[in-house]
Design brief:
The protein is mostly helical. The chain is 57% helix and 0% strand. It has helices at residues 2-19, 29-56. The longest helix is centred in the middle third of the chain and has 28 residues, at 29-56.
Length: 81
């Protein structure tokens, strides 16, 4: 779902629950808002858990043994000897 979708569900659910005083015949908008906020919170928790578990897996590729480094002195071909 992602962080953005989860926050969107929480915001829309809060608007339905706390800001609207509209009666729909068979539909309880307060209950729908609470369900949307719970789904958004659950999605936020799951997304955070998935992203945090990805950060724990660190792959480090280091060379085995010592590396040999040689220093070269370059000669400028345009410089007179």
């Amino acid at each position: 779902m992602g962080i953005g979708g989860s926050i969107l569900l929480i915001v829309i659910g809060a608007i339905l629950t706390f800001a609207l005083n509209v009666r729909v015949g068979f539909l309880n908008l307060d209950l729908v808002g609470w369900i949307m906020m719970a789904a958004g919170l659950l999605g936020l928790i799951v997304t955070t858990w998935i992203w945090s578990s990805r950060r724990r897996q660190v792959v480090s590729e280091s060379p085995a043994g010592y590396r040999r480094v040689e220093e070269r002195t370059e000669v400028d071909p345009y410089e007179p000897l």
